[in-house]
Design brief:
- Helix content is about 40%, strand content about 15%.
- With about 400 residues, it is an alpha/beta fold.
- Strand 1 and strand 2 (about 45) form a beta hairpin.
- The protein is globular.
């Protein structure tokens, strides 16, 4: 009898070991094999599988930490575990545990850029005099380059959401009234007598009229179409001073509709469990041009020019406009996600390209060479450099020294 019990115990131990081994193997069996996959819960590209050898044939000395990052990012069921963590922490403690985001008042979400935007808001990362001088000189290099091509040049600076809606920012964070972006704009305009468009002033003025200019939580890292139109008008009014015949769209040219959104953020649309656990509300404003846009998008770059996909290249052309004017923009998603078709109603050609993106597969110098090559082929009449505050750092401006 004792022997039978021992056998039974051994069998159950074996079963337990097999089940346990199977369970811990599941995450490895179901790990992500898709290169370049974007995590829905973290809104970022997952780490790629490392290579033992580098492009020059030498051994990759960083393969161990790169492999650890690859496994951590792509292990099976991580997405589900992160989603469950977001839901439980919010329901139990009213804490939003999402990388790069913080929850403010009235369910307003704010992007943090890994905490750097919080320091910017608090005035803890001001530029030194040497930084200001270097950054301004590098931006001046870019302006002079496009002037040599025969362009009118404009420099457009867009604030973070919290610089306009500080009253909704989480309590306990000191707000510095002087942002480093404002300081740079004044410095650059004074030193080089440049056309500087600081849209923050225009947004604050429009905000006083009662309009909501940034998304509350649907896409809380961007302005909405109300805010985008404020930026459009300010830029176009500056351009019209140099090109009086240019057409500017008016608010009355659009049908504006409002749709209600309930959930977390649109990033989580494919994660129903997460969306259904949040009752955040926002309004989506849709601006539809009466009669429709006449500009159309051409996805192919000029012949002979190869553009990295992460440079976010766009080309709009309008056959109904014969003014011969070409607009060339180096900027970010605040323009290419919102305003390019509007610009296409004023210019015969509109070209947009991103100056730099951390996910690019090419070096920054190659990116600038691509931008320069494109500019010299299309021969623009108007050049716009645009940057949002959260990208406004010294390393970004150092790239421009190559011009």
């Amino acid at each position: 009898m004792k022997k039978d019990r021992t056998n039974d115990l051994n069998i159950w131990n074996l079963v337990f070991i097999i089940v346990f081994a199977f369970m811990i193997s599941l995450p490895l069996l179901f790990h992500n094999r898709q290169e370049g996959k974007v995590s829905k819960t973290e809104n970022r590209v997952l780490a790629a599988k490392p290579s033992l050898f580098q492009e020059d044939g030498t051994i990759n000395r960083d393969i161990i930490p790169e492999f650890e990052a690859y496994v951590d990012d792509n292990i099976g069921f991580k997405e589900q575990a992160l989603a469950a963590n977001i839901i439980l922490k919010y329901r139990l403690f009213h804490v939003l545990d999402i990388p790069d985001w913080i929850l403010g008042k009235d369910n307003n979400l704010f992007y943090t850029s890994g905490g750097e935007d919080i320091r910017t808001y608090a005035g803890q990362n001001a530029y030194s005099k040497a930084d200001l001088k270097s950054m301004a000189a590098n931006l001046e290099n870019m302006n002079q380059y496009f002037e040599r091509l025969g362009c009118y040049t404009y420099n457009m600076f867009i604030p973070n959401k919290e610089a306009v809606y500080s009253e909704y920012y989480p309590s306990g964070v000191t707000h510095s009234p002087k942002s480093r972006q404002d300081i740079f704009c004044r410095y650059f305009a004074k030193k080089y007598k440049r056309n500087v468009i600081n849209v923050r002033d225009d947004l604050l003025a429009e905000k006083d009229k009662g309009a909501m200019l940034f998304y509350k939580n649907f896409d809380a890292s961007h302005w909405n179409m109300n805010g985008a139109f404020v930026g459009y008008r300010r830029l176009m009014e500056e351009i019209k001073k140099d090109i009086p015949e240019i057409t500017i769209l008016e608010r009355e040219d659009f049908d504006i509709t409002e749709d209600k959104f309930t959930g977390l953020m649109y990033y989580y649309a494919q994660l129903g469990a997460v969306q259904n656990s949040f009752d955040f509300e926002d309004t989506i404003y849709t601006w539809t041009l009466k009669g429709g846009y006449h500009s159309v998008m051409d996805e192919e770059p000029p012949e002979g020019i190869v553009i990295d996909p992460n440079l976010s290249y766009y080309h709009y052309y309008n056959q109904q406009i014969t003014n011969g004017e070409t607009l060339f923009i180096v900027g970010d998603s605040y323009l290419y996600n919102f305003l390019l078709p509007m610009f296409g109603e004023s210019f015969e050609h509109v070209y947009f390209i991103r100056n730099y993106n951390k996910e690019m597969t090419i070096e920054w110098l190659e990116a600038i060479e691509t931008i320069s090559e494109l500019a010299e082929v299309v021969c623009p009449d108007v050049f716009v450099f645009e940057v949002v505050e959260r990208v406004f750092n010294k390393s970004y401006f150092d790239y421009m020294s190559a011009y």
